[in-house]
Design goal:
hydrolase activity, Alkaline_phosphatase_core_sf, hydrolase, 3 domains, about 30% helix
Length: about 550
């Protein structure tokens, strides 16, 4: 391998990195390369505000397109066709990525492990997809993954969960990212590189209290960053996260339960309503059958019958919780059976509901848009105003406001894909409350997860095209793509919602066309769905 490529700008994505996570590592000298970007006087750094919603599947497309979800079209981990769902993939992203724009201008790129990039489109360079891709994804060019594995040994999209040592499996995954990127940079000799580390987020979803594994993962990321900079010798390096990470200090708020009390959500027992998609950790999926088109098994039919008689999963769960048995039973009970016996949202009768908690909002069951819409078009604004007014006043049992903001969707989303957004956006106060779509007997409870995403991430940059004195200003996630283009002297797309940060010179703007509609029929990979559920993204 040669000493370096002609890399002009390297963008390094460190999922969930933020001051709360990084400062203890800096204090203990664990990550000297990362720390240098924040302590070096020649670098510009600061907080990076994420978007709404600040979750991986929507935030990374916002970063690499520079556009809000109302333009690129991805709001969460699931795409919906009526009440059928599938895991999102790159064909759901309706705007051009950085590497697409650069390819049109004659620049080549190497992209490794960036979420929602499978299946890859044609461009000048090389791409190994990241999160939401299957374990053995199609890459660009064809056959690339086999070449990478032959060069560096095994390459995995996801950590090997069969390894009991979390520090080992997550660190090994981070190592693969760096080695693959350096091999491809030598092979392609690109002007732009994008290297993403996902395990820095996943470890907090899996074991937020495993300090050893967290530090080992970050130490390996730091080693890979140092070696990549040394070998590839990029002119400019930009570090960016898609959001922050931290503990939940508040409550779990079951918003569909609240809407039921308000007379907006109707329910059914043992029927086919939500949460049929809410969790995918069941035996049928492990066998490779999609949850939206399979036949229910004997256990599910039995639980559904019991639920119609009043013996719901929620009532059974309350008894188990009283005796401290809920976790033991949850480890063995197939989710399909639990869901079949659950009290569910009755779509045909409900006026509004939360479809997926990751969407961060309420959908109105609007006539002409939803399959079983019951709210007439002329009542839309009245119903929406009622929901907004009601939710704005919600407080926890401790008297704290649940929401920082409850607003119409158009205050957050604009563009040709905004019709797919929720109608009412609900932003929890400081992201300290867990918003759940599940139905329980109580509206409030302890958070289902101890840690989750926060709105403030981080960004740092240095290089000859970075003016450290100018700083990063009030940096936003949408600003990352324009800033990358500026370091390469490429005009910014005039439809981008961000702008180059103060630390770079503006390259001007121009118009770029949207993508042709090439949406596929689905991701069609059960393991991806199981992993999303396992990390808590699907309830």
């Amino acid at each position: 391998m040669e000493d370096r490529s002609s890399l002009r700008t390297l963008l390094v994505g460190i999922d969930a990195a933020c001051e709360r996570v990084l400062e203890p590592l800096f204090d203990d000298g664990e990550v000297p390369t990362l720390e240098s970007f924040y302590e070096d006087e020649t670098a510009a750094s600061g907080p990076l505000e994420s978007q709404i919603p600040p979750w991986t599947a929507s935030a990374w497309p916002s970063m690499y397109t520079g556009k809000n979800p109302g333009k690129h079209g991805v709001y969460g981990f699931l795409s919906f066709d009526g009440y059928d769902w599938d895991v999102v993939n790159a064909t759901d992203v309706r705007e051009r990525a950085l590497w697409d724009l650069l390819s049109d201008r004659g620049y080549s790129s190497v992209v490794v492990n960036v979420p929602v990039t499978h299946p890859p489109r044609e461009f000048d360079g090389a791409l190994i997809p990241g999160y939401t891709a299957p374990e053995n994804p199609d890459c660009h060019p064809e056959g690339l993954l086999e070449d990478v594995r032959e060069e560096i040994g095994d390459y995995r999209v996801y950590p090997d969960e069969t390894i009991d040592d979390r520090a080992e499996s997550y660190s090994d995954c981070a190592r693969m990212r760096g080695e693959a990127f350096r091999y491809l940079a030598d092979r392609v000799d690109p002007e732009f590189g994008f290297l993403e580390f996902q395990v820095t987020d996943s470890i907090f979803h899996k074991e937020p209290d495993n300090e050893e594994a967290i530090r080992a993962t970050y130490r390996e990321v730091d080693r890979q960053l140092a070696e990549t900079i040394e070998v590839c010798d990029p002119d400019n390096v930009i570090l960016a996260s898609d959001h922050g990470m931290g503990p939940y200090d508040g409550r779990e708020f079951r918003i569909n339960e609240y809407l039921r009390a308000e007379g907006l959500v109707e329910t059914e027992r043992g029927g086919s309503g939500m949460p049929t998609w809410a969790t995918v950790r069941d035996d049928a999926l492990k066998a490779g059958t999609a949850s939206t088109d399979r036949e229910p098994g004997l256990g599910e039919r039995a639980m559904a019958t019991a639920a119609t008689l009043g013996l719901t999963s929620q009532r059974i769960g309350a008894v188990l919780e009283r005796f401290g048995l809920e976790e033991t039973v949850a480890n063995y009970a197939p989710t399909s059976v639990v869901n079949a016996g659950a009290t569910q949202v009755d779509f045909a009768s409900s006026r509004a509901f939360v479809r997926s908690r990751i969407e961060l909002g309420v959908r109105i069951n609007l006539e002409g848009r939803e399959p079983d819409g019951v709210v007439p078009q002329e009542e839309y604004e009245a119903v929406r105003t009622r929901i907004i007014d009601a939710l704005r006043s919600v407080e926890t049992p401790d008297g704290d406001p649940v929401f920082e903001a409850v607003r119409p969707r158009e205050e957050y989303f604009h563009g040709p894909e905004s019709e797919d957004a929720v109608d009412v956006v609900t932003v929890p106060a400081d992201f300290d409350h867990f918003l759940s779509a599940t139905l329980r007997d109580e509206q409030f409870g302890p958070p289902s997860e101890p840690w989750n995403h926060k709105l403030e991430g981080t960004i740092a940059a240095r290089g000859p095209d970075i003016d450290d004195d100018a700083g990063v200003g009030n940096a936003h996630l949408f600003d990352v793509a324009p800033t990358v283009l500026a370091t390469l002297g490429v005009p910014v797309d005039d439809r981008m919602d961000g702008q180059p940060l103060p630390c770079v010179d503006s390259p001007g703007v121009r118009s770029y066309p949207r993508l042709d509609d090439d949406r596929s029929t689905g991701t069609d990979d059960v393991a991806v769905e199981e992993r999303l559920a396992d990390l808590g993204y699907l309830e």
